[in-house]
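My current task is to audit a protein record that another person submitted. My question to you is simply how this chain folds and whether the tokens agree. This is what I was given:
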Amino acid sequence: MTTHSTRMLILGSGPAGLSAAIYGARAGMKPILVQGIQPGGQLMTTTDVENYPGFADVIQGPWLMEQMQKQAEHVGTTLMYDTVVEVDLTRRPFRLVGDSGDIYEGDVLIIATGAQARWLGLDSEEALKGKGVSACATCDGFFYRGKNVAVIGGGNTAVEEALYLTNHSPHVTLIHRRDTLRAERILQERLFAHKNITVLWNKEVAEFVDGGGTAGLVAIDLVDTVTGEKSRLDTEGGFVAIGHHPATELFRGHLKLDADHYLCVETGSTRTSVPGVFACGDVMDKIYRQAVTAAGTGCMAALDAEKFLAEAEFELAEAAE
């Protein structure tokens, strides 16, 4: 068992965590970043990335994360391959325990553990991820311009994604397993008023149909939840929009969470309910959920943390005089 101590401890290695590490390292914090259960975050499972600023051509998600990791290390970040299983935020330095048994101590803590999209859990869904099946319309909708697509879900996320996809697709079908939507009323009104959106009620996805070869998704097999009747919807894009799981289980009872279990931060800041603990990326952002916004909040968290340390050290120096 080894104890690793640092001024800035970062948990999570997606765009938010690595951006925080880059800014923290450049400020002389010598950050330690614990990579967690999925090093690189969600972009490690994303193939084509076409909307990250600075790249005229399509880039690969894993390549982008590899470059961010190299940059973080180059400027002085120490990366640890471990998963934190226990936290103590009752005093500073904060103390985290890894699955390896190692202890990580930080004068400040930046949480960038992200969120995972909820999936239906079908084998065909897994097989066609990135080949017609997606969980992010704003990430992948552009690839389906001129094509008919479907959205699965009935909450705010599903309705918002269906409306967004009309910017690219001539027709969008919303598939919902009930006969009413859970989305806010104003979103429902916009949805029902849109001439290019059709809603299929009481329908559950049985299978995503693979066209074989390079065709990818060509149809979705459905089952009526009331009658059991089977049907098929021809489509080239299927967007699963049934919500996200923020990775906050570790912090329940330690930090303030909202009703959807995202970490609460002060408006215009990354400060959490515990002084010296900051949150960035998808673990606190349920609105935008983009790599570029995650990276931006990672920068904010590092600057907020640096300011917190500077103020704490000033107060200590004043008290010692």
About this structure: The chain has a mean pLDDT of 94.
